[in-house]
């Protein structure tokens, strides 16, 4: 782990739609490796391909996708101004149209608001570009010191996002069509640390905190049994 039969890499320094500052590398131990049984994703301040930071974005696209189920990721988050770790899903559509095809953010944390963890969904009707995203957040004062289990429960009726069994966000299928519920698409999982960007860098990026890491203890995906 990261096992190549389940995980690949997104690579590049395009800004990823958010004016992010990092270059995502592939197969580079400095940015993604296994250490004492833990997956380490690590962002470094270094010049790389015209960017000032490197990091990694691991994806299961084309290797493992799901529609419905439960995902649990036990992780310890980075901290500091400019860090923006995420555990999330995107639609495995080809081509993928964002936000129309759906995004589920199981965990996002921005370093300038230490301890506040966000769960969000995006679709054509509800997304942050038009200011209609559906979201909630919860405060975990030790999220960068200790591991927590970030959770998604997802069926044809609703999406629930939680931490350590506390489901603090629920989005219900309003059955008004694809614009509001693209979540019958197969989706793949992403794990990454972005640096800066429209949200992560909204209050600047610290110079003296790097490297910063997200440690991942496990990623588990469960099928939901059919309701009676």
Short note summarizing the structure:
This protein has 228 residues and is an all-beta fold. The chain is built from no helices and 16 strands. A hairpin with a 2-residue loop joins strand 3 (32-35) and strand 4.
Write the layout of secondary structure elements.
Blueprint: E1 8-10, E2 22-24, E3 32-35, E4 38-48, E5 51-55, E6 57-59, E7 69-76, E8 83-91, E9 103-108, E10 116-122, E11 134-139, E12 148-154, E13 158-163, E14 166-172, E15 187-195, E16 212-222
Parallel strand pairs: 2-5
Antiparallel strand pairs: 1-6, 3-4, 4-5, 4-16, 6-15, 7-12, 7-16, 8-9, 8-15, 9-10, 10-11, 12-13, 13-14
Overview of this protein structure:
- The chain contains no helices and 16 strands.
- The chain is mostly beta strands.
- The strands form 2 sheets. Strands 2, 3, 4, 5, 7, 12, 13, 14 and 16 form a 9-stranded mixed sheet that branches. A 7-stranded antiparallel sheet has the order 1-6-15-8-9-10-11, with no helix packed on it.
- The mean pLDDT is 96.
Percent in helix:
under 10%
The topology string of helices and strands comes to: EEEEEEEEEEEEEEEE
Radius of gyration: 17 Å
> Count of helical segments?
0
Number of strands: 16
- Cα end-to-end separation: 36 Å
Largest sheet: 9 strands, mixed
Low-confidence stretches: none
The fraction of residues assigned to DSSP E strands is: over 45%
How would you sum up the global shape?
globular
**Quick check: average pLDDT?**
96
| Derived structural class | mainly beta
């Amino acid at each position: 782990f990261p096992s190549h039969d389940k995980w690949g890499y997104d690579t590049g320094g395009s800004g990823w739609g958010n004016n992010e500052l990092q270059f995502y590398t592939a197969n580079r131990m400095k940015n993604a490796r296994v250490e004492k049984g833990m997956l380490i994703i690590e962002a470094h301040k270094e010049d790389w391909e015209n960017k000032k930071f490197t990091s990694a974005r691991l994806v299961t696209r084309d290797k493992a996708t799901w529609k419905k189920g439960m995902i649990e990721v036990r992780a310890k988050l980075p901290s500091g101004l400019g860090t923006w770790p995420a555990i999330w899903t995107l639609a495995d559509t080809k081509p993928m149209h964002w936000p129309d095809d759906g995004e589920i953010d199981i965990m996002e944390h921005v370093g300038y608001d230490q301890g506040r963890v966000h769960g969000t969904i995006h679709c054509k009707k509800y997304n942050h570009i038009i200011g209609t995203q559906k979201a909630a957040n919860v405060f975990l004062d030790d999220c960068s010191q200790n591991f927590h289990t970030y959770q998604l429960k997802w069926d044809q009726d609703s999406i629930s996002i939680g931490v350590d069994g506390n489901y603090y966000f629920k989005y219900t299928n309003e059955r008004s069509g694809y614009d509001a519920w693209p979540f019958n698409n197969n989706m793949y999982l992403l794990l990454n640390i972005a640096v800066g960007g429209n949200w992560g860098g909204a209050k600047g990026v610290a110079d003296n905190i790097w490297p910063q890491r997200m440690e991942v203890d496990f990623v588990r995906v469960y099928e939901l049994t059919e309701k009676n």
